[in-house]
């Protein structure tokens, strides 16, 4: 998709509201959050930085230790408290803040991979659970200046999700099983949070 004039106008209005603003892009797995976040950042230019929530995945070894590796991506497989702490720091533009980044090829986050300098006027945060009220994510919504919930066609979302899992090493059968199993369970949980968003973006 490309950003509509209405969405671009919302970004401009958001930037007019203060020296630094935080925009949340929310949606189910495969909804296109990373794509939309990148488009917003490109429209704003160097003054925007994208910070994905996925950087707060628990490490694969920790998920295996606590018995949650078979449902990686569920709310309780993230460091929600760490994510809230980062967002709180990002509200203060006086110094550079470093955020982690999830590397799919490693199956682990990498600390300090994303720099948010003082001159960053817009921080675009994208993730599944920005509007969830459970599992430690409750404070997140209040730390966002605006939130967009992405609502694509479900069949398209699932096909993209299967293709992504295949691209990162799953067999076609395993990719479909994961997309229609753990990912779909998480998608239903995320869908229930759409009512808390400032705007629902319908994607073709």
Automatic annotation (TrEMBL):
A Pfam family per the record: PRK
Keyword Transferase appears in the UniProt entry: yes
GO molecular function term, any single one? ATP binding
Which residues does the UniProt record annotate as the domain Phosphoribulokinase/uridine kinase? 22-172
| Signal peptide positions on this chain | none
The keyword Transferase belongs to this UniProt entry's keyword annotation: yes
| Keywords, alphabetical | Kinase, Transferase
User: What protein does this entry describe?
Assistant: Nucleoside/nucleotide kinase family protein
The organism encoding this protein is: Cellulomonas terrae
